[in-house]
Amino acid sequence: MTERRAADAILLTLAAVARRLDAGERVTPAADDDLLTTILATATLVLDAQAASVAVHDPTADRLVFLASAGPAGGDVVGLQLDPAAGIAGYAFTTGQQLAIADVTTDPRFDRTIADATGYVPASILATPLTDADGTIGVLEVLDRRGGTFTLRDLEVAGVVAAAATMVVRRRRSAVDAVALLRGALAALAAHDGAETGDQGLDDAAIDALVSDATQSLSTGPDDPTWRLADRIARLRDVDPESVDLATDWLDALLRRRGARGPGSGPGR
Asked: pLDDT by residue for the chain (269 residues), tens digit each?
């Protein structure tokens, strides 16, 4: 393609990406990391704990990555990574089970890697997986209850906190996936340009199809189907008004059905 047509193609690609990002934001609004920190601060207050943190699984690197922490002993855990099967956090993540350890020095599952990195070695740990209808994506850890050992009620409270943290992480991933969408769309455009033998430019529909393929690739894992839905919403601009009204009515009906089942409802529940 000529330089002018290449520039036009890039602009069309960016516009198509923007439509899907806007749709994805409407489907699952992005949340600030401050919200996750606030949730953890609440957990430390309610559970009278020294620290609370959230680690999320990165499927590309196959590591648990700490995203946020709170509490006087929270330390510099954010950004640290560990094997997803290692330690008490790894056990909660891989098994999907809650557990409370009164004395970590007597538990063979305890891994000092994170403790040594932060300079704080806990005596007791409560770990709860971040789980929803789409699977387990991470783990919540609470360290050292000041009022004694963790109780069954503490496990229940941690479960509620983990559910809130899971929703925030899901929304946060939409923002992270936006980078992957842009990169994938531009890569698809470059690949198509490299395969061209003539000086033909891509029209809007062809570029939209390339971006659609990049969007669909974001929804191939166990995560929610946000980007598949965002792609379809973005494509509504090309259909007649009656079809748009029909799609809107369908989405409204779906929202009413979800509201009737309750905010925590999901398949199989």
From this structure: 566 666 677 667 777 777 776 666 655 554 446 788 888 998 999 899 999 999 999 887 899 999 999 998 877 888 889 999 999 999 999 999 999 999 998 999 998 888 888 888 899 999 999 998 888 999 999 999 998 899 999 999 999 999 989 888 877 766 556 656 666 677 777 777 655 544 455 666 777 777 777 776 665 454 556 667 777 777 776 666 666 666 777 777 766 665 665 544 443 33
Q: Which residues contact 137 (CB under 8 A, 6 or more apart)?
A: 56, 57, 130, 131, 166, 169, 170, 223
CATH 3.40.50.40 corresponds to the domain 33-169 = no
Query: pTM to 2 decimals?
Result: 0.59
Domain boundaries, the chain: 3-29+174-261, 33-169
Residue 17, H or E segment: helix 3-27
